[in-house]
């Protein structure tokens, strides 16, 4: 896979080509990397207004470093493959931002090239349009124009656990984040009339997956598509312009691997502290017998990191899950036919562990796949990292989720399951709907008036500040 790396040096030459690529999209996925997550207690507050205020503080004091965009084009019919173009915007705020040590360490651990970043990054001025930073043709204006161009396309936007990503994008390339959550929600509903889809919400509440972190879903679906269907996604080559764009941002050998999201790695999710994983010693014993790390398999996060003695390899985890599902199926049909459960020979870690009684205490052994899976370098699972690849994985996951509902077109699927943003530690999503009680923000209304006519924010004359 190759992605187009967008820098301050090539954004001017690339812009028309990027618009062409974006204009063909059936849907577009986003992901971001930023310089910090802010106060973790406040950004997880149960009261949504308190939470929004804390997230707003994060998005206005920390900065975006990477904006990943993947434009997915659906094949004309069932036999035609989908295609995707991946764009990696390397960006830096012109304002002062807090760089949290944990975020810096995380990026460094994942081979983020800081020198290259500061040399290449497109400088942007966050907040509202203003006369001093709307000079046409400057990298800042080009990237703001591109964002508004995406809005004018009126296609569904796909994110994964993306409320904070949307807030960063809004603050960085669109306008000052509204003070009130209701205003922000009203703006989003008006900015994305074709709908916003959060693939984490869909995985948890619609397709009901065992785990819903991005790398897990991506690898699971990639295996599923290879086994049951065909590799249906082709990737557009990176766009070359003069000066040529280095296409070196993904895996060195062009292989596809999975990654962990920044958010999951740097903070311990609240869900880890739930009774689910701390209660029931019996369950803990069962988990201990597994070769893979149960904590990691459920949340994409393990406090032991690379030092964990259990496997974090997604293929090992998915192989084990498939094996468990098969055995459960066999058990079920057995007990249905003769009312008894026969012993199932189950491989275990210790040879003297009794497996005479049919047991779900499985120790996974990798199943021989019928179809060769795309090659993977296991170590890269946890070292590889980029917003662009996360955006690509998010779009891929959405594409498979939508294919699981073949009776629904993309727009029907979005209508049924979209506009519900996943909220950490909450059982209900954030609904992105227009409400009769809350108005959109003044700045959004002013901007929309311009871009709905021009298809671009252009240079707005007569700006107040
Ligand atoms: Zn672990």
From TrEMBL:
Positions annotated as zinc finger (C3H1-type): 287-315
Keywords per UniProt: Metal-binding, Zinc, Zinc-finger
Superkingdom classification of source: Eukaryota
Residue stretches of biased makeup (Low complexity): 348-357
GO molecular function: 3'-5'-RNA exonuclease activity; snRNA binding; zinc ion binding
GO cellular component, as recorded: Cajal body
Signal peptide: none
Stored Pfam families: CAF1
GO biological-process terms attached to the record: snRNA 3'-end processing
Residues of the C3H1-type domain: 287-315
Region called Disordered, residue ranges: 329-357
Annotated PANTHER family: POLY A -SPECIFIC RIBONUCLEASE/TARGET OF EGR1, MEMBER 1, TARGET OF EGR1 PROTEIN 1
UniProt record similarity statement: Belongs to the CAF1 family.
Name of this protein: Ribonuclease CAF1
Source organism: Rhizoclosmatium globosum
């Amino acid at each position: 896979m190759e992605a187009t790396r967008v820098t301050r040096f090539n954004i001017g030459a690339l812009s028309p080509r990027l618009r062409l690529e974006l204009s063909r999209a059936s849907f577009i996925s986003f992901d971001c990397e930023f310089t910090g997550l802010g106060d973790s207690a406040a950004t997880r507050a149960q009261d949504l207004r308190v939470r929004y205020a804390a997230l707003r503080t994060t998005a206005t004091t920390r900065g975006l470093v990477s904006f990943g965009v993947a434009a997915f084009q659906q094949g004309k019919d069932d036999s035609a493959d989908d295609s995707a173009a991946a764009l990696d915007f390397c960006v830096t705020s012109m304002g002062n931002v807090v760089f949290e040590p944990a975020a810096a360490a995380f990026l460094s651990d994942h081979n983020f090239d800081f020198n290259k970043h500061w040399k290449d990054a497109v400088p942007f001025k966050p907040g509202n349009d203003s006369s001093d930073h709307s000079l046409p043709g400057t990298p800042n204006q080009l990237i703001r124009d591109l964002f508004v161009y995406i809005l004018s396309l009126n296609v569904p936007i796909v994110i994964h656990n993306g409320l904070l990503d949307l807030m960063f994008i809004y603050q960085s390339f669109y306008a000052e984040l509204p003070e009130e959550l209701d205003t922000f929600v009203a703006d989003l509903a008006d900015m994305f009339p074709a709908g916003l889809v959060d693939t984490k919400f869909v995985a948890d509440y619609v397709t009901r997956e065992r785990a819903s972190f991005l790398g897990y879903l991506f690898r699971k679906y990639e295996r599923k598509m290879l086994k049951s269907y065909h590799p249906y996604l082709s990737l557009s080559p990176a766009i070359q312009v003069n000066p040529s764009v280095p296409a070196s941002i993904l895996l060195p050998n062009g292989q596809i691997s999975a990654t962990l999201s920044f958010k999951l790695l740097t903070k311990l999710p609240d869900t880890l502290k739930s009774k689910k994983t701390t209660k029931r010693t019996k369950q803990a014993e069962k988990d201990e017998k597994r070769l893979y790390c149960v904590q990691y398999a459920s949340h994409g996060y393990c406090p032991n990191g690379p030092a964990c003695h259990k496997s974090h390899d997604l293929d090992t985890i998915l192989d084990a899950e498939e094996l468990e599902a098969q055995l459960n199926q066999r058990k079920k049909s057995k007990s249905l036919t003769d009312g008894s459960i026969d012993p199932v020979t189950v491989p275990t870690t210790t040879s003297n562990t009794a497996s005479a009684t049919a047991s779900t205490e499985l120790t996974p052994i990798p199943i021989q796949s019928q179809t060769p899976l795309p090659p993977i370098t296991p170590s890269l699972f946890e070292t590889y990292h980029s917003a662009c690849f996360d955006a690509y994985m998010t779009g891929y996951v959405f594409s498979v989720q939508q294919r699981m509902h073949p009776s629904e077109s993309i727009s029907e699927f979005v209508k049924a399951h979209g506009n519900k943003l996943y909220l950490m530690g909450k059982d209900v999503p954030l609904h992105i709907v227009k409400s009769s009680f809350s108005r959109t923000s003044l700045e959004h209304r002013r901007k929309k008036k311009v871009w709905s006519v021009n298809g671009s924010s252009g240079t707005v004359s007569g700006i107040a500040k």
